[in-house]
Amino acid sequence: MMNVLDFLKTVFGTDISITGFDYLEKTPYYIRDGYTPSYITWNKDRCVLLTPNTMSWRLPVLKNRY
Which of 6, 28, 50, 64 is most buried per CB count within 10 Å? Predict the structure, then answer.
């Protein structure tokens, strides 16, 4: 089974890395408790990846709740 980093390398190329990321103090609790953040860097681009901790905290659930 392909892990997240392998999948991202197939999409964005091999020059990609994932490191830990700490939430900002203002981040809502339902995001802090429901997701694990990672910082992704490739070439000159970067973004934060939020991985759900459980299947109950997926994005469609958040959109319906809030």
Answer: 50
